[in-house]
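A reminder from the course coordinator: this example appears on the midterm review sheet, so study it carefully.

Given structure:
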């Protein structure tokens, strides 16, 4: 969902100049994918964050741009189907010689599940670590900054979106519909979701997706504990609502996806490849100190 808390966090980060504590030998390049309502290159968000990481870590950083302009890139967060975006990014990565020896990936909000699709569908060049900040790996069932349980108005709009989300024309033209996950109607979700249900192996099990995801060294999922954007927040750790209702949630380990091993996450957990981190703030609100302490070890 939209990176509403990101600007303040990134401004803090950008205030930090490169210091004597910087990494002296460059590591792998970094690929970043922005969230809804952002672009690759706004100087007050990912454009500035790119410069910060380059100065701090001394590595090549690629902030993904969809299309040939900032305007198109901005619109992509709403109107270009994720499957088209993933295909475009796969071509970008394959055509970038600086990524030939592999890279680490950071996905902001919905950019997190998009980069996971890259890991599963586009194994070359190799993604080493995948870091998702507020990603919605089991989808969403709620509106940004609109708590559906406590607000009748929010509930009305949520039901309206739920009614239309699985229509083919909505799936084709609205990005958020492709990861709208209705726990009250799992069958409709699995049959009609044109993106999330596929990358989560909900309809058929794509063994290639499993094999490619297993190639990650670490899959790091960051959950924002006071998130008002992602509903439910457990989706950031691959949890979700229990099927058939929208109040009680379950952890990844309790889900059908995990128990039936549809993505090979059981094996990844046994091999300590899954990392679950908490950040005490709203969506994408983090400080430089938190980022350096918690994320730098994976970069």
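Designed residues:
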């Amino acid at each position: 969902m939209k990176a509403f808390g990101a600007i303040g966090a990134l401004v803090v980060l950008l205030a930090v100049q490169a210091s004597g504590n910087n990494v002296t030998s460059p590591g792998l390049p970094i690929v970043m994918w922005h969230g809804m309502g952002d672009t690759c290159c706004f100087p007050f968000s990912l454009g500035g964050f790119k410069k910060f990481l380059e100065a701090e870590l001394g590595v090549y950083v690629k902030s993904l741009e969809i299309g040939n302009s900032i305007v198109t890139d901005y619109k992509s967060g709403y109107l270009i189907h994720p499957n088209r975006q993933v295909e475009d990014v796969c071509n970008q990565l394959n055509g970038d010689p600086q990524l030939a020896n592999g890279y680490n990936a950071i996905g902001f909000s919905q950019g997190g599940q998009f980069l996971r699709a890259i890991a599963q569908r586009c194994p070359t060049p190799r993604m080493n670590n995948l870091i998702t900040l507020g990603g919605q790996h089991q989808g969403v069932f709620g509106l940004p900054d609109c708590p559906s349980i406590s607000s009748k108005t929010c509930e009305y709009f949520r039901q309206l979106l739920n009614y239309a989300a699985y229509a083919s024309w909505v799936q084709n033209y609205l990005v958020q519909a492709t990861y709208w996950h209705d726990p009250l109607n799992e069958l409709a979700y699995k049959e009609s979701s044109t993106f999330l249900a596929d990358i989560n192996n909900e309809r058929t099990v794509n063994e290639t997706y499993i094999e490619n995801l297993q190639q990650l060294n670490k899959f790091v999922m960051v959950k924002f504990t006071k998130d008002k954007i992602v509903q439910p927040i457990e989706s950031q750790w691959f949890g979700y609502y229990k099927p058939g209702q929208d109040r009680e949630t379950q952890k990844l380990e309790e889900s059908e996806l995990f128990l039936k091993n549809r993505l090979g996450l059981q094996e990844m957990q046994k091999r300590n490849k899954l990392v679950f981190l908490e950040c005490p703030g709203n969506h994408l609100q983090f400080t430089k100190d938190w980022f350096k302490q918690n994320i730098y070890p994976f970069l």
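DSSP finds 13 helices and eight strands in the chain. Residues 152-165 form the longest helix (14 residues).
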